[in-house]
Amino acid sequence: MISTTAIEHLKEKLGAQNVLYEKEDLLVLGYDSTPGVHHLPEVVVYPTSTEQVLAAMEIAQREGLPIVPRGSGTGLSGGSVPVQGGMVICLTRMNRILEIDEENLTATVEAGVVTLDLFNAVAAKGLFYPPDPGSQKISTLGGNVMENAGGLRGLKYGVTRDYVMALKCVLPDGSILTTGGKSVKDVAGYNFKDLLCGSEGTLGIITEITVKLIPPPKDKRTFLAYFNDMRTAGEAVSKIIAAKIIPSTMEIMDKATINCVEDYVKIGLPRQMAALLLIEVDGHPAMVAEEAEAVEKILREVNAAEVHVAKTAEEAASLAAARRTALSALARVSPTTLLEDATVPRSRLADTFDEIERLTEKYQLKVGTFGHAGDGNLHPTVLCDERNADEMQRAHAFYNELYEKVLAWGGTVSGEHGIGLAKKEYLARQIGPGGVAVMKRIKQSFDPKGLLNPGKIFDEGDPCSKPHVEEGFRVSH
Amino acid sequence: MISTTAIEHLKEKLGAQNVLYEKEDLLVLGYDSTPGVHHLPEVVVYPTSTEQVLAAMEIAQREGLPIVPRGSGTGLSGGSVPVQGGMVICLTRMNRILEIDEENLTATVEAGVVTLDLFNAVAAKGLFYPPDPGSQKISTLGGNVMENAGGLRGLKYGVTRDYVMALKCVLPDGSILTTGGKSVKDVAGYNFKDLLCGSEGTLGIITEITVKLIPPPKDKRTFLAYFNDMRTAGEAVSKIIAAKIIPSTMEIMDKATINCVEDYVKIGLPRQMAALLLIEVDGHPAMVAEEAEAVEKILREVNAAEVHVAKTAEEAASLAAARRTALSALARVSPTTLLEDATVPRSRLADTFDEIERLTEKYQLKVGTFGHAGDGNLHPTVLCDERNADEMQRAHAFYNELYEKVLAWGGTVSGEHGIGLAKKEYLARQIGPGGVAVMKRIKQSFDPKGLLNPGKIFDEGDPCSKPHVEEGFRVSH
């Protein structure tokens, strides 16, 4: 239990309005966007500066409290759920864009800046910040960095890590680490920046981020292609890449997802189709024209049932927006939505679709699959009800068997959502006990007391390997 | 001293032809391409497989021998000099290209494959491996990864790290770590891959590497622009970037370098010019045409003394090749060549040129400056004689003062050459004692006995902070 003295200290350092500790205030900070895992913190603080983060860190360390950093809570692996209680440090009030440097093509932001706000701010200056996770309207840059978020443009433009140039980070030992800078090349010492990126809040709390910006593409073309089966869609993706065309976006939805999205946004998607690919090529107009032609040719060669080219920028935007609703659309139809994040080398895409189909039948589940086909990054989503124990067991068996194949094919258990709580049991299977051992030693070297985001990523020998689920909570979609 | 039993074990495990321990055989393995640092190892092994690397690692650990991994020894910060003696593990016989996967656009190589050999092998299949360190004709991929090597195309295409997808690595604890894969997105656990990349052989020995390949640019245009002063050349670079044009190459040479290169390669560079920029734009032909026009316009606007467009691919290639000779060309004119690797945010480029000029005068030195102007990554090179103690002291003071400014401007003490032995004293100035402390804890978590490449990167409290220089050695250029 946190002491009243500690609460007083926090109020003193952060201001009373930035410290919450009454149960009714804590309720909404007990979960993120991952179903089935939630736990009340003891106190939530909203720092407005790096120094305040440091002060909160010091008080928590003194009290021996678990410390869980979070942004908007859009995480999909439970990374910001305070499963051991303690202190949540919520960075959403550190939301200033500190600088857009047009000479060096960089932007520096506080960790709580919303992804889309940064995108819009730099776009207003004719620049481009490419990473666009599905939740960009509410997700924060700090969360994006901690999870190394991907997005719809990852295929051509890469993920969050590819744009992080510098980080300011409060470490558990009470120091402030600044790593990287505006120099585009830097090999001075170990690469903390890329280690912190994707560390899921277990090594330090990021408070400031400098990202790289690029010139925006001058033109783009958006296609929708429909298919009578998923395998053909997968083959189309492979053929486009093999033709040395790297579209900015190559997204897939299966029949279940098409129908849920159509129910939700009503833009006239054909409900009878087995698969849909949303493809966008961008760049110089001449290149776009050539690539668009080549993509269309490939789509016709593999016998896509229908190819539709967006006629206006508005139409293209509405198609992309429709794709972004996929998770919410699926989540509407069942009490529980189990979303996975299997990623395979692109050449295994068609095989993975087959496997998902086989397992869906074998385990008699309702599954909607969508995702970043061009990256081999799929989100097979089981639509179920967590009150149905038998169904939950079948869902678990489904993922278990799927991941076995994914790993055998050289894939990964998480392409962009992180390990958090949700994937701990799979991690050792992927990186082996030796890999986990090195990770634990690194964790230990940053956080010897193990107070920072405890119970995340690591499973084995961890007292908090099973999430504590409190009665009376339910994640609503 | 290594025991005869250990030598026998090594011969048994690696084959007698792959184990050298006679002094005359060891002589050439006592240095890399960094002047002034050299030390004899006790034994050198040439493993031909990951298992042999592991066997050598185990024997060295049992004997308590320092272990220094190396490739071709083109490093410029002393990273592969066995300053504490012990065992050198030379990976040049692990030189097989294991796979070029055209479906997934990846290549998998052993660590000893020469950079240019990989470039040529993938080019033969219509693919492109962009990183091109100056030493690409002899440097190995393993060395490139360990130092996170840059190159002439870094501006547009990034550095080695941006292409590393997976690594196989022998750790000091005798385990083999495989990290990453052919999936283009992977967030399962801490990012070892990017931590190992640039770790300068201090955390593990990389034996296999999977790199990302991309489609090659369809067209390119090469320019030479001459200037009457360095500052204007720096301004041209900033203006080109600010115009949202990202050339693939933007290289600079000052007057001293132009003259040394002209002496060396005799291609008619105008000796009276104060600065030269080598600029290359590439991509789709239509984009190249537009960007080339825009670049030319900027060059004329800033009053470049002369702008020359390469008329043929051969001419373009010979200009790039001439730039690649810069270091060798400078090294011919004096007994000792002290090469530095200062990197600043691009907006500080012109200031940095001014500062180099001021310090050259102040310390009465002969300095040739060249480098990757587009990256803000410069190689101010002092041409001196290490037998002249006074001159060496002035050279030291020159760099000392230069780095003070570079750091104040948000730059880095190493853009691409690494810390190794040469930069240890500067590292703490850049990342602070807190940063060094975290680095040491990470080092400890990988290598608790401290046997792997000891004496590198870290200075403070390190028994080997001063390189041991043996009499009778001299680095020849």
Helices and strands in order:
Two copies of one chain form a homodimer.
Chain A: H1 4-14, E1 19-20, H2 23-26, E2 43-45, H3 50-63, E3 67-70, E4 87-90, E5 97-101, E6 106-110, H4 115-123, H5 141-147, H6 154-157, E7 164-170, E8 176-180, H7 192-196, E9 205-212, E10 219-227, H8 230-242, E11 249-254, H9 255-265, E12 275-283, H10 285-301, E13 306-309, H11 313-324, H12 326-331, E14 336-339, H13 349-362, E15 367-372, E16 377-384, H14 389-408, H15 424-446
Parallel strand pairs in A: 2-4, 3-4
Antiparallel strand pairs in A: 1-2, 5-6, 6-9, 7-8, 7-9, 10-12, 10-13, 11-12, 11-15, 14-16, 15-16
Protein name (chains A, B): FAD-binding protein
Keywords (chains A, B): FAD, Flavoprotein, Oxidoreductase
Organism (chains A, B): Desulfuromonas versatilis
Q: What attributes characterize this protein structure?
A:
homodimer, 477 residues, alpha+beta, Uridine Diphospho-n-acetylenolpyruvylglucosamine Reductase, domain 3, Vanillyl-alcohol Oxidase, Chain A, domain 3, 5-stranded antiparallel β-sheet, 16 strands, 36% helix, disordered C terminus, flavoprotein (chains A, B)
